[in-house]
Amino acid sequence: MRLKTKLACAIAFTLPLVGCFDSSDKQAEEAVSNANASEVSEIRLAMMQPPRTGLSPLSDDAFKLSRWSTAETLVNLSPDSEAQPMLATSWEQVEPLVWHFTIREGVTFHNGEKLTAKDVVNSLQAAINAAPKPRILDGIDLEVRALGDYQVEVKTTFADPLLPSRLSSPQLAILAPSAYQEDGRVVPISAGTGPFELLEINGTTSAKLERYDNYWGEKAKIESVIAEYVPDGFARAAALKTGTADVVEAVPVAQIATIDPELLTEVAMPRTNTLYLNSDSGVFSDIELRKVAAAAIDREQIVNVVYEGHADIAEGLLGPALAWAAPIRPERPELADDLKANGESIVIGTFTDRAELPEVAALLKQQLEAAGFAVELDIREYAQIENDALAGKFDAFILSRATVLDSGDPVAYMVSDFSCSGSFNLGQFCSEDVDQALKHADLQPLGKQRNQAIIDAEQAILNDYAAVPMLHERVIQGETGRVSNVVRDPSERRLINQFTEVK
Amino acid sequence: MRSVETLFPAMSMLAPWLSRVAALVIVVIVLGLMPDIAGIDPSQTILRARAGQAQLMTPEALAAVRADLQLDRTATERLWDWASNALQGDLGRSWIDNSPVLDGLLQTMSTSLLLMSSALALTFVLCGTAVLYRMYFWRKGSQSSNHNSFSTVLISLPEYVVATVLILVFAIWFGLLPPYGWQGFETLWLPSLALALPASGLFSRLLGDSLKRVLKEPWVITWLSANVAPNLIIRSALKKAISSLIPQITMIIIGLTGGAVAVEQIFSIPGVGRLILGATKAQDLPVLQGGLLILLTISIAISCTGLFLQQLILGKSLKSGKLISTPSNFRFTQSKGKRNTAIAILLFLLGVVVWASFRDPYLSQFGRLASPSLAAPIGGDGLGRDLLARLGAGMISTFQGGIIATALSLLVGMFMGFFARYTQGFIEVTKAIPYIIAGLLIAGIFGMTPYSALIAIVLVSWAPLAAHCSSLIMEAKAQPYTHLAPVWGASQVRILRFYLLPYILPPLLRHALLRLPVTTLSLTALSFIGLGAKPPTPEWGLMIAENLPYIERAPQGVMGPIVGLVLFGVAINLLFDD
User: Is A271 helix (H, G, I), strand (E, B) or coil?
Assistant: First the structure.
């Protein structure tokens, strides 16, 4: 009897197994053939975030497409945030509000079709019509039309010095018409123009790319790229240690000490860990108490303990990733050492999605309590806390904030975080002087003048103690010894390109 | 109850099915109304999900999303549209990426089912070994309780800890298996094992408990004295022990299907749990509704198969009142050795609390991940806080929360178990909802109240107890003396008090105690969403989560709370052992 039931169980449970293995058998075969291919030249990537919207360039996933060098934009942004030709060979501001872009000839999409001005207009128009619009186009209205086979006209509503830089946003990638499906989805399979062709999208597991032999520029050195998504930091670190992946995105700080330092690279990132103080209501509406808090924070302790030294102490809102900022920044006035609070109780909010933030919060609590505050922490998942944070329900909020958006320019970030009408103004901060300074900065042409105006605005914000910048994070990227020429991009736009090699 | 059944005989047949349909409908409606109940505009969360954190939440962008998703419809209109399409087999399109919901679900579902089957197969292998071991000792005439403690250890380990330890051992140290992925057989082992270890601990404990009870039944002595071969006795005993456990087994299987969220996350497996978790966070209602609908339907199917098997095995003896078994009892152990060990363990735990009360659990006084020393007997955590102090300071409140949650689950479970015919659907449905998702849903509906975590955990942990209770009642009612009780005029209340309760309470209490460690941990594990305990309180679940990334460098941070839980579990078990 027992045998019978066992048999029955065995059959009952192997049946679905057999059914499912069909598909994974194929995968297994693929894995085997992949293993063979690795002798040729293949790179395996362990990416952090799985795609949100099936790799549509209109969402955040656009950054994956550009990191894999499969989708390209009209303009490329150099490491110094300068606009360089990519799919557009040149551009000209013919009138204050009208720009002409000349499209590169001889470019083909991965499906073999030729790139023309019509395709450019089609892709840009899809981005303009998207809900939501790519963040680089926030509050900006563009009109795009083709002037011939290889010329595109872009009209803006104000004299925008940043337009070419804006067009470098990976979210404004140019894809073949075949990518834009009738139901509104964008599926970039074989639709890019880059050195690698996207062949397979396996949902939130992996994607597969191969070298595109008709690429307009220098052909890629490696033959294929397998990108896997590994959201768990511990597993990503394990991938690097075991060699399961050749290139690993975002190695968590907690794992660094267990990894061979040879395998790790660090680049300063335009990201600032900032304590936003609520200047509208509660304890910190008093600027004197904001000063007490600013003086109480021991940045060095946070960097050494939580980040184990893998971060930079913040002097201003803009960190070392913007190399021009530090030299022109004036010396900040020293705050008196003996500033103390009188037991005022405050609530600090932060979130668990970035693993280091809860630890930063715990340390801050100790530091602020030593300065005489009574501190309570409220730590949730980002999605659960964003509304309360925006509504100003906390006295202070710790946020790890990207300081340049896709244009490489920090003004948009400052406007959204520190202007009266800012849409991400966690500190409910509003000052006419700061608004004026930001408005002035936004109208300056790129270059020295603009940089100076930006630093002036930054100083205006810091003088009001609307926020206390604590530290700047670094991109910590893992690379095994097998690969070379992997791009170490602080803005996290590129990772693998045509020059990447396998030894 | 009785009169209703005699009036409408069909009613008693239909009741479980009605309750199933009702449960499904309620879940779907509550999900559909969630944004309205919670007052959170889904266009915000959808915007975040589509475009990421860096997207600015301007009114313009929000309006675009709202128009795109036709969110201006009222909740009723939305539900109605959804339901009428769903009835035609169209579960709609995801609000995030506009892909058909059904396609994504079928794909992730097959992954989840494969993972579940292989985890289940491993569970059976592990349990089979445990049973053989136990039988070996029974034949020699002694009862071993050694492996009781071992299974307590397994039960007390949360899956995310097991998963991390497995990666550490098999992928990093031995380099035998890949640390993550979903390609081919070699990636199947670690996640299956991570799921199977806690499940087999629970299963083998329940089986052992049930087997022990069966082997004490009068027929065993009769058969033994009649010189029936021990193998035959063992087989019959096993059959009977398993048959009363079938509802429990189905609960474990259901738990493996949707409850694998943490394991799927760590090993980056594209399963249905992860899909639903993402949809819950983003308030992607079409995916959430469709996903839970399918998950719950599968859960109901598994449970129905189980019930059918049980009928098949127990057969007529259930209805005709010929099931003879002795009730087990629940009292303090008679063995001095066990009592002393239990008391020693509890005293030790108490000692830790007292010792820790002289220390500061909040201050960063040592180096990061300081190793154990005289000043810090078990070292420091990531911020250099004293681990011993945190362990002791968190113990009482952690246990307190766990015990309250377990007691509430037991009460709710017993009540629902008594009316299993009408609550069957709810038992199957609530068990299928992973606790993380229950936590997010409760947070959405009730907000971040201090009791949200408790509500969420009780909501998902009463079901196994209810299922157990109902199968025990079925057994108890099938005993000849219960069957005959009305004949000699025993009242309903009397039957309940003297016939049913003594039969069902002891095994049910044991079962609840078994679940105590897991319930305790999941309660505090919800704090990462923002429910329950708030950092930096030294709650144990929180401590495990905080120290898990450092498990390779300072394992004591994770081991401390787990050893504490295991010790507590062992002590309680010893105390109530035979």
Answer: strand
